[in-house]
Amino acid sequence: MGKYDARLMEIAGQQHFAVSRDQLLEIGSEDQLEYRIANKTLERRFQCAYRLASSPRNWKQDLTAGTFAGGKLSVASFRSAAALQYLPGGEELTENHVSPTSDGRDTRA
């Protein structure tokens, strides 16, 4: 495993195997990102949000990718964040909630 892939696994492993485009470009080039999309190592989930294709897809990953898609000011709602951290109020979560961005992009996970 190369340096880029090792760093990718380190970052993604801490984020339910979801990563943002900005994070990917911080550790490597556009060509490295496009190569991993082409060889199906990475799968695009939303605009500017990816997941490791070999990882199991789940609501935590979708929520994390949704916040990445919303941009740096996007956050999970209090109920979604509570469920993610196993806090009271999050036990009955039936869908993910991501606060919209000021530019109106759809960030539903």
Please provide a written account of the structure:
A three-stranded antiparallel beta sheet has the order 1-3-2, sandwiched between helices. Helix content is 41%, strand content 11%. The protein is elongated, with a radius of gyration of 14 Å. It is of the alpha+beta class and 109 residues long. The longest helix is centred in the first third of the chain and has 11 residues. The protein has one domain. It has five helices and three strands, in the order αβααββαα.
H and E string: HEHHEEHH
Compute the CA-based radius of gyration.
Answer: 14 Å
Strand content: 5-15%
The total tally of domains equals 1
Report the average pLDDT across residues. Answer: 83
> Please, how many helices?
5
| Structural category | alpha+beta
Largest sheet: 3 strands, antiparallel
Overall body shape? elongated
Strand numbers in spatial order across the main sheet: 1-3-2
Strand tally = 3
Unreliable spans are none
Helix fraction by DSSP (H/I, runs of at least 4): 40-55%
Distance between the termini: 31 Å
